Amino acid sequence: MPGRAAGDEALRGRKCVLLSSEDRGGYECLHISYEAAGDSVMAYLLVPDSAAAVRCPAVLMLHDHGARFDIGKEKLVRPAADAPGHIRSSSEQWAEKYFDGIHMADSLAASGYVVLVPDALYWGERSSADAQLWSELVYGDSLQRVAALRKAGGNAGTVGQSGTLRCGDASLMAGRVLSGRMPSGAGEVTGLVRTLKNKIFEGQRTVYDSLSAEGAVWAEKTLQEDIASASFLASLPFVDRERVGAFGFSMGAHRCWLLAAFSGDVKCGAAVCWMMMKRDYDASSPSDLSMRIPRLREEYDFPEIARLTYPRPMLFVSGRQDPLFPERSVAEAFEKMQDIYCELSENSGGRRPASGKNDSCSGECGCLHYGTVGKSENETESGAGRGTYTGICGKTSDEVCTETCVGICDKACDRTCDGSGRRTGMETVFVDGGHHCGLPVQHIVLDFFTRCLN
To answer: Does 162 score more than 80 pLDDT?
Structure first.
């Protein structure tokens, strides 16, 4: 779909505005805004050149929290050339820290997927003036940016139902923080940066409370927008609506499994680094406010979301050394999700695999309880290890299992079956490392989408 004219034609009639377009050699990056759940959402839409001839598979990519608010969609997409310099620098730093320097949405688009990446409320182009000021001071030339403080009109004091940011009392404006004068050196700028960061972080409480006062729940609003975004993506004329998936990292993973539970447009989901048992979760941080849906929290433990995502294929990945999601709690949640998919599959006519796991099983089979992936002797040149799994049977990846579960194992070695040879669709994988979505994890995710959407 090369060219702005073609982009305008494809998006016409969908309450969508094309702001700019950029040819990236093999795919096009469109900067767009569209209506979702009564608000205007800013997003990047990446469209492969192949979309001019055939309907393509598509992925809705959902960004993380990370206590970094100046960027949202830019955590997954390389910003457009006309984006502010501090946003491009911030995006690069984030990609290096969490994605091995890869902008994952661009990688998927280069592989032939249409990719939509929206900003959630309070991130990216929907963030506060303070978040952008912080970004200018940290990722621009700080001393040259000090003059911008005179024009900073306050903070996101309240957020309306529509998601519009409103400036509130500027009690922490730079002049007041620094006794009524402008900062004159790097040390004072550093202090201001720290103050702004804390103010923005605590501002999450204001967003939550402001929406609550209007009868809304922040995370429900985000979910409604994500559902609308999935519907928008599936409706595009160059997208095969039967091949639409979702991906998320960290908070984005939480958004992903909620979306898979409540959207009819999403056919599969890949959630990286957000799953555990509810009893082990710290809900006291302001960061939880953007993910808290009280009615769901009261009714379900986190892994019980599997009852709502079934029968969609789902991939959950977690780092063994993730400080936010301890392995013990994640393993219990993974086991519960596997059990739920097996139970529901059994109720729909399949046979459940034998309970328990054989710790001596080193086979890379398709009949997993839960598994681990790490670099091993069969590691590929790209750095992605096929790994060793804890499974039920001991068959290798290209053998037919005729023992415990009569399943057919394949080379991807991370599918589950329900005991009758049919795959239940719940894939749970541990990787070596922490809260991270580096190349090995990206290869696992791409393999999952290749199998589910192609």
So the answer is: no
